[in-house]
Design brief:
Length: about 525
């Protein structure tokens, strides 16, 4: 009898334990919101199984992650059937205004996805994954000791992704806070090796390394198109780069890139601490529109401090690398050592055919402010144009630079160069060509047939007395920009209403930037 009672108690305890296990599993499993009366949603609360929820989601459904909850691990967006987006969003995403850029202050409204360490990502895609939308997520390196290479991996930059069929596509990252730890080193915020991808209204910050390049956004093994719109992007090596490594998909050139209304920055506190190169770099890219951005802080470090680098680089970006059809319009670039380094070909890959050289780049209606050799180091050029570039045009820009040259020309002659209707300072050597001096002779040697007219170039900072005589006709050379602009020292760079330089451009407009157009384009 006693043994029967013991057996009955044991069975009761076992049954109770089984019930508790089932109850715990029900508490922690992802819960379809149909249980709560909302169809098409899966709710994942703190302690829930996020990967299980991702795996079980169906096209058109929404995963709602509890704001403030923490999920640690590498989470993979799987490949699904159907072409309706699956949305992964914060439970408080409605408090993050659509179209508005988030900031670290919005973190309490977001769930946290934390990288697990050992170089692994916090979030990645399976081969061929598609139609995923991420809204209002904080994705982070949890602390300085956690090793992170790519925090968010959209596609695969390695040889594993060697066909277009493996490339993830139709991915949206919206109103997300992607960041390294304050004192941590992390190589890359978003590895962009996908197709049809948008990064919008997000804050991608803190990506910095000593002795290596680090980026906020970098892509080389995805075909595009890409929309990078209204983000804060912070990277020490480069804020944004396309190319820099060879695509494993043969012949791939990232194409159809829009970089609009972003703020690209490097904190000045990084100076002398982390490895810095450029702000925006194109080494393999086609059809790129760069408009309405604020690009600031780039200094002499691992390179000469040029904010913008455009050059096809077959030696590191694939033998087919090209840079073509680029517009750079209505941007503000400030607090940098130098502005543009543009090369027609790769100095380390001299067999690059002519059709692969850089061609069709237009830089128009931009403000360049505090481009200063003294403050930021470097070689003191606004523009370095090298090695057989084709059809590069600078028109209607206002250029406040202080260095030894305005434009440096060298290498194989560049064809179709246009420098027209700009306001600038001449500085020591103005438009200078290696070993041939400055002015018309430099243009004839290194940019034969160049159009150089309608410019207002102030003879400030050691310009020679006979400046006007050595340049092509059709340009004006006042003694100082104070004769031309309304308030140089006060930051008002419009042409004075009563200036004799009013409407002096070749097209009958004011030389330099149209600030009404610039202000409209840079509004977030």
């Amino acid at each position: 009898m006693r043994s029967k009672r013991v057996l009955a108690v044991a069975l009761s305890v076992a049954a109770l334990g089984a019930c508790l296990i089932v109850a715990f599993a029900q508490m922690t499993r992802p819960r379809r919101a149909t249980d709560a009366g909302v169809r098409g949603e899966i709710v994942v609360r703190a302690g829930g199984d996020l990967q299980r929820a991702l795996d079980s989601a169906r096209a058109g459904e929404t995963l709602v992650l509890e704001a403030g909850a923490t999920f640690k691990g590498t989470f993979t967006l799987p490949k699904k059937e159907g072409d309706e987006f699956i949305t992964v969003r914060s439970s408080r995403a409605g408090e993050l205004r659509e179209g508005a850029r988030v900031s670290p202050a919005d973190a309490p409204l977001m769930p946290k996805l934390l990288a697990p360490g050992r170089g692994a990502a916090a979030l990645q895609t399976a081969p061929g994954a598609h139609h995923w939308r991420l809204v209002g997520l904080e994705i982070a390196q949890p602390d300085a000791a956690t090793v992170v290479f790519d925090l968010v991996k959209l596609g695969d930059g390695s040889s594993a992704q060697d066909t277009l069929a493996k490339v993830p596509h139709h991915i949206t990252v919206d109103r997300c806070y992607v960041h390294a730890a304050d004192a941590g080193e992390a190589k890359r915020g978003v590895s962009l090796q996908s197709a049809d991808t948008e990064i919008t209204n997000s804050y991608v910050a803190g990506f910095k390394v000593k002795g290596q390049e680090a980026q906020a956004v970098a892509g080389w093994n995805g075909p595009g198109p890409y929309n990078i719109i209204n983000n804060y992007l912070e990277g020490a090596g480069e804020n944004v780069i396309f190319g820099g490594a060879a695509a494993s998909v043969p012949g791939l050139v990232p194409t159809g890139i829009e970089i609009l209304r972003n703020h690209l920055d490097k904190p000045v506190a990084w100076r002398g601490v982390y490895t810095v190169k450029n702000s925006l770099e194109l080494k393999n890219a086609r059809r790129v529109r760069i408009e309405g951005n604020l690009i600031e802080h780039c200094w002499l470090d691992a390179q000469q401090g040029y904010a913008i680098l455009f050059t096809p680089r077959p030696n590191d970006s694939g033998a087919w690398a090209e840079v073509s059809d680029v517009t750079f319009t209505n941007n503000v670039v400030r607090h940098v050592a130098a502005a543009f380094d543009i090369s027609g070909e790769d100095s380390l890959f001299t067999s690059n055919p002519r059709e692969r050289r850089l061609h069709r780049v237009k830089v128009s209606n931009n403000l360049f402010e505090d481009v200063d050799l003294t403050a930021w180091g470097g070689d003191g050029c606004f523009l370095k144009l090298l090695s057989g570039a084709d059809s590069v045009a600078f028109e209607h820009n206002t250029i406040l630079s202080r260095g030894w040259a305005l434009v440096k020309l060298d290498g194989d002659p560049s064809t179709g160069f246009v420098f027209r209707d700009n306001v600038a300072r001449h500085n020591d050597y103005g438009v200078t060509g290696n070993s041939v001096g400055y002015g018309a002779r430099a243009l004839e040697t290194y940019a034969p047939g160049a159009v150089f007219t309608g410019n207002v170039i102030a003879r400030e900072f050691n310009a020679p007395w006979n400046t006007e005589q050595v340049y092509p006709p059709g340009n004006k050379f006042p003694a100082s920009l104070k004769e031309v602009l309304a308030g140089v020292d006060a930051g008002d760079y419009r042409v004075k209403p009563n200036s004799k330089y009013k409407r002096s451009a070749s097209d009958g407009r004011d030389a330099g930037c149209d600030f009404d157009q610039l202000e409209a384009a840079t509004k977030s």
